[in-house]
Amino acid sequence: MPRLLRHELLMFEALREGLGEEMERDPNVCVIGEDVGDYGGSYKVTKGFSEKFGSWRVLDTPIAENSFTGMAIGAAMTGLRPVVEGMNMGFLLLAYNQIANNCGMLHYTSGGQFTIPVVIRGPGGVGRQLGAEHSQRLESYFQSVPGLQMVACSTPYNAKGLMKAAIRCENPVILYEHVLLYNLKEKIPDEEYTCCLEEAEMVRPGTDITILTYSRMRYHVTQAAKTLVDRGYDPEIIDIRSLKPFDMYTIGESVKKTHRVLIVEECMRTGGIGASLRSAIMESFWDELDGPIGCLSSQDVPTPYSGPLEELTVVQPHQIVTAVENLCGKK
Q1: Which of 80, 197, 249, 299 could bridge across to 75 with cysteines, CB 3.0–4.6 Å?
Q2: How many C-beta neighbours within 10 Å does residue 165 have?
Q3: Cβ pair 240, 143 in contact under 8 A
Q4: Is 164 helix (H, G, I), strand (E, B) or coil?
């Protein structure tokens, strides 16, 4: 069997590699956003693209999110495959009308005459003292918009694979990238690959409890799992990756095995991904549950600038350990 060749990349480099490969493969792929050209993007995902692909395919825009997102949707209607970068995902709230009323619905409202193969991506989540307006988690805002798919990357491997799959998708896809994960390093395959946009990832098989998480919280959960294993627990960890639609097959198979569920997210507790996921599990797998579904979410407050206060608003590993002990009973 031939040896699988791999190369090591940081997550922002994996995103760049995936985007660059798709731009080379398909001349209809283009990038639109603030500082994506000569500057190379706020986190260097498009570094070098302006020189390689030219300013018509790597289009620097004014600070006008509603306008350039609408331009990208119009470009998609004509056959292009735009990738919109939000310098910070919180800024894309200024484009909410374009994303909700046009991006998500034009395929339906046009009677199928148009497809909208747009990717909307950029850094989000709670960073380190970025303040409330730069610490948004937009997945809760967009999950109820019909017609949108949403995925969250968490490793260099799935960042590249999800980027490539999102660009090839005929549906509009929002790709969430956590600002604190860009410098994660991992060896990824040299050969081409994509990740399925609708599949969850089994991070750790187990038998005692199913822990469902995504994005940065994947690492808080795996850190907590070390303590839990030392205390005699065997948690199953699933990175749901697809925030819309949920991979209910993978989730359901795990629930049927463990019969207990804990959801861990950085999203807000009220109206967040966890609330929707808990509802979906109770609706589909109620008879498989041996107890209530736990859900650990961020506090329903604006994210403080103060470092210690900011940390208190986000789920920490020790809280995950306590929640598992409460749901499973102490060993």
Answers
A1: 80
A2: 24
A3: no
A4: helix
134 catalytically annotated: yes
Structure-block tokens of residue 106: 């034009």
Q: How far apart are CA 328 and CA 331, in angstroms?
A: 8
**Which CATH code is given to the segment(s) 6-189?**
3.40.50.970
Tell me which of 65, 85, 201, 265 is the catalytic residue: 65
Among the listed residues 107, 134, 178, 220, the single catalytic one is 134
**What is each CA distance from 82 to 28, 57, 79, 165, 178, in whole angstroms?**
8, 9, 9, 14, 21
The Cα–Cα gap between 75 and 69 comes to 10
pLDDT tens column, 243-272: 999 999 999 999 999 999 999 999 999 999
Q: What are the C-alpha distances in Å from 39 to residues 142, 267, 327?
A: 29, 30, 49
Examine the residue annotation and report whether 65 is marked as an active-site residue of this protein: yes
Residue 53 C-beta-side C-alpha neighbours within 13 Å? 28
Q: Please tell me the predicted confidence (pLDDT) of residue 1.
A: 47
CATH code, residues 201-328: 3.40.50.920
- Both tokens assigned to 17: 């590699």
Residues of each domain in the chain carrying CATH 3.40.50.920: 201-328
pLDDT tens per residue across span 184-201: 999 999 999 999 999 999
The torsion of the CA quartet 301, 305, 307, 313, rounded to 10 degrees, works out to: 10
